[in-house]
Design a protein that fits this description.
Elements: H1 3-30, H2 34-60, H3 68-85, H4 90-110, H5 117-137, H6 139-142, E1 148-149, H7 158-180, H8 183-193, H9 195-200, H10 205-231, E2 233-234, H11 245-254, H12 261-275, H13 283-297, H14 301-308, E3 345-354, E4 357-367, E5 372-376, H15 383-390, E6 398-403, E7 406-407, E8 420-423, H16 435-442, H17 451-456, H18 459-479, H19 494-507, E9 512-516, H20 524-539, E10 543-547, H21 551-557, E11 560-565, E12 568-573, H22 575-579, H23 582-587, H24 592-598
Parallel strand pairs: 5-10, 5-11, 8-9, 9-10
Antiparallel strand pairs: 1-2, 3-4, 3-6, 6-7, 11-12
Pfam families: ABC_tran, BCA_ABC_TP_C, BPD_transp_2
Subcellular location: Cell membrane
GO molecular function: ATP binding; ATP hydrolysis activity; branched-chain amino acid transmembrane transporter activity
Length: 599
């Protein structure tokens, strides 16, 4: 981003912040109805808190939520129950709203873990309707259809309450910012873009979704408590989806999946609603038209569109061009291989059938530490299915997988904990993250801090995050990608993407690295670079499994080769032995020109 633009945005942010802080004094000086205009801004800030929560769920978690007005409702009930019925101070009511909102969000997610995006949205819609009906029926707690009245922030003046709301808006923004700019946020974005790739990095998709949606629920609960305190009552109608229109429109107008977009969008919508207040019956229509025009003209929202423009994205002058790769792999990246006679990775009698198709039919393969082991075979021979069985992306029908003599876990996301990391056949980068963040995502399992440390920016988080970034930068320099560190991964060339995938996998600290057709589509220079990486990993004691169609590349690089055809192993041994095996020449290199080439 050009420096003048950064300075301009900083100045604009400072001005807007000063206006918000001075707003009660401005309205008191210029308006006879200062209380009303203070309330308008406070209501917009409360809406901003809920929209931040919605953004966490949808923009950063990829979970379409229709539950958020219900989360706001239960947060309001929590505050009302303690302040009105129990007679406790209002801060206690807000404190209770956090676990109530978080608990409801967690419960809904737990019953819908296997639901895809659309079905998850329908489940949250059903849950929202249940919450509303429960509010109408549970009269002893919720007051029924009339709700609970007399909810008030103690002796606080309206001006003082205005500043309380601003404080909570700032806290909600900081929680969102700190969470998303940490390993938790990178993991959430990874799960949203590609759950399989996230699992290959040791990120558990279900746990990641649960954490993000639970935090979003807690923030929504705070919004509900503040909403009840401002209105002075809470009733089931607060949970109606009609009331969620402002939040959804504000989210998409500001820019879903951006940090400041939700707040900016809600501010724009609040201003629009205020300008058309004399035409209240058309509010829904006008907001709908505004949302439609935003989707057509600014599909990424205000902030997202700006960031994609030449003014908002990283400028060519801010990154260096092509960088020469460093000669050696940085220390401390790869663990020392254990002292054992067992193979690093072993599959015994692997069987995987899809109906009548015997994709893998009794495959035995053993990969030693400190070697490059090739797996080759014709198209459709079962190579990639074998790899998916070894890494548990496919459940075995028979056989077993061992890692250094120990049984492999049954879930794909558990396998990296034993030191087995996979690079897929088709590039699976997290393209909406930067090159550096892709490598840091690979380090998620090694980060050693939790979400609370990330939100609070504790010294342990700062220390580990700084060390992780330094290690990631060294890895990128080793691969010759340091000049692209702050570019979006989607902007790289195909060859650079493949190299980045390898670097990201190595960042997880594996003892076994599986590369599925990494040389496909690479230029000769890029193939040489890939070979250099593999040899370096081998020399550091890493077991490298290479699935590849480039015979020349495999024969010149691998120490051992296993040949699969029709789901069965037809040959195994050193390259010189395999290349002359009659079964290999018949099944895989049967064309005379290829036989002559490899012979």
């Amino acid at each position: 981003m050009p420096r003048p633009v950064r300075l301009g945005l900083a100045a604009l942010s400072a001005v807007l912040g000063a206006v918000l802080l001075a707003w009660p004094f401005i309205t008191d000086f210029y308006s006879y109805n200062a209380s009303y205009y203070n309330g308008v801004v406070a209501a917009a800030a409360i809406s901003g808190i809920l929209t931040i929560s919605l953004n966490l769920a949808m923009g950063y978690g990829g979970m379409m939520s229709m539950l958020h007005t219900g989360l706001q409702l239960v947060g309001g009930y929590a505050a009302a129950s303690l302040t009105v019925k129990a007679g406790l101070p209002w801060p206690v009511g807000i404190a209770l709203a956090v676990p109530v909102g978080a608990g409801l969000a967690a419960a809904v997610l737990l019953v819908s873990l296997r639901a895809t995006s659309l079905y998850f949205g329908m489940i949250t819609l059903a849950a929202n309707l249940i919450v509303i009906e429960a509010g109408r029926a549970w009269e002893d707690v919720t007051g029924g259809v009339n709700g609970v009245v007399g909810v008030a922030p103690g002796s606080l003046s309206k001006v003082a309450f205005y500043y309380v709301v601003l404080v909570f808006l700032g806290l909600a923004y900081l929680v969102q910012r700190n969470l998303m700019r940490s390993g938790v946020g990178r993991a959430s974005l990874a799960v949203m873009e590609s759950p399989d790739t996230a699992s290959a990095m040791g990120v558990r998709p279900a746990t990641t979704r649960l954490l993000v949606f639970t935090v979003a629920g807690g923030i929504a609960g705070v919004s509900g408590a503040l909403y009840a305190l401002q209105l002075g009552f809470i009733n089931p109608d607060v949970g109606l989806l009609d009331n969620g229109l402002t939040f959804f429109v504000g989210l998409f107008v500001g820019g879903i999946g951006t940090l400041v977009g939700p707040v900016l969008g809600v501010g724009v919508v609040a201003l629009l609603v205020e300008l058309i207040k004399d035409y209240g019956r058309y509010t829904t229509l006008i907001l709908g038209v505004a949302l439609l025009m935003t989707m057509i003209v600014l599909p990424r929202g205000i902030v997202g569109t700006f960031r994609a423009s030449r003014f908002g994205r990283v400028d060519d002058g801010e990154v260096s061009g092509e960088a020469e790769p460093e000669a050696s792999l940085p220390d401390g990246i790869l663990p020392e291989p254990p002292e054992t006679d067992h193979p690093a990775l072993e599959g015994r009698g692997l069987v995987k059938h899809f109906g009548g198709v015997k994709a893998v039919d009794g495959v035995d393969v053993a990969v030693r530490a400190g070697t490059v082991h090739g797996i080759i075979g014709p198209n459709g021979s079962g190579k990639s299915t074998t790899v998916s069985c070894l890494t548990r992306f496919h459940a075995l029908d028979a056989g077993e997988v061992l890692v250094f003599g120990e049984p492999s876990p049954a879930k794909a996301w558990q396998v990296p904990a034993l030191g087995v990391t996979r690079v897929f056949q088709v590039p699976h980068l997290f393209e909406q993250q930067t090159v550096l963040d892709n490598v840091l995502t690979g380090m998620r399992r090694r980060e050693g801090y939790g979400w609370l440390a990330a939100v609070l920016r504790l010294p342990s988080y700062r220390r580990r995050e700084r060390a992780g970034r330094e290690a990631a930068a060294r890895l990128l320099a080793f691969a010759g990608l340091s000049g692209r560190a702050h570019r979006l991964a989607g902007s790289l060339s195909h060859g650079q993407k493949r190299l980045l995938e390898v670097v990201r996998a190595v960042a997880s600290g594996p003892r076994v690295l599986i590369l599925d057709e990494p040389a496909t589509g690479l230029t000769p220079a890029e193939i040489d670079a890939l070979g250099r990486l593999c040899r370096t990993f081998r020399d550091r004691g890493l077991a490298v499994v290479l699935i590849e169609h480039n015979v020349e590349f495999v024969m010149g690089l691998c120490d051992e080769i296993t040949v699969i055809d029709g789901g069965k192993v037809i040959a195994a041994g050193p390259p010189e032995t395999v290349r002359r095996d009659p079964k290999v020449l018949e099944a895989y290199l049967g064309r005379p020109d290829l036989i002559e080439e490899v012979a």
